[in-house]
Amino acid sequence: MIIALDAMGGDKAPDINIEGAVLATKYTEHEVLLVGKQEVLYPLLDKYAKIHNVLSSKIKIINATEVIEMHESPASAVRQKKDSSMAVCAKLVVDKQADAFVSMGNSGAAMATAIMYFKRIPGVLRPAISTPFPTISGMCTILDVGANVDCKPEHLVQFAIMGSIYAEKVLGHPKPKIGIISIGEEDTKGNELTFAVSDMLKKTSLNFIGNIEGGDIVKGKAHVVICDGFIGNVILKFGEGVADMVIKLVKDSVKSNPLFWGMIPFLKLAMYSMKKRVDYTEQGGAPLLGVNEVCLIGHGKSNAKAVKNAIIVSAKYASKHVNDEIAQELAKYEGLIKS
Question: Are 72 and 109 in contact (CB under 8 A)?
Fold first, then answer.
């Protein structure tokens, strides 16, 4: 697979993107097109290729004269900067010179770029950002997590369809369980949106298990968690904060109690295992489901490890032909979603 990487995107760009690309090509057969200002990228590529003892033959630099900054308005930046690193990445995919577009930059701009150049899959009302989320039993995916703050029932039904296919093909959950976030497990609890969505999903062949509460997410009750983007984004940011807090509390407790010092080697192993399971860098980024090509959007604070994993995940996504299956499944429920 060939991945077009926005080398200029992210809080720590371009260094982390170039190092991540080097690591990805070191451990996989994938090729990477580094897109950005070539005068900046060439010396950095030489630097990180030497650090990691990697021949950079699987990495090519594609020039882009403009950069969409993290603070810019997505809509205006995408319209005005036609030669941005994001736009050039998207064009490479459209022109079949790359199989996927990955960016750690301005998430709104990355999404707008993908929708502008890739267009929506036929039948998709709104593309959704689907974020992998750690649970006791593995990974689930939550969608939407910010792209669509206000949703209608048909939007969430489509999220369930798209998320189910992604969870099965990429995350490896056969017949994934789908739950909708509500204020109680009972069918009688929720709001007008959750009631309407539940009624519609019960008419599909999806493995819909009904309402789930916030605490059920980490218990692994559902493989696909659907909600509007407002709720999804709150869940995502709260989860990141709790994970950081737990790790810090454990470290502080060990430092403040001499009785724990002898246990430090064992605690380090446990902490490493726990951190690995809740660390967003392990998954690399969140796919934008509902567009005709593959787009993976990473965290602005990503490091080289996250970039490496984003490249690997996007390649897996592209190889599974997820978008073709989404189009077929949406067509099956066209009458239900329009009703």
Answer: yes
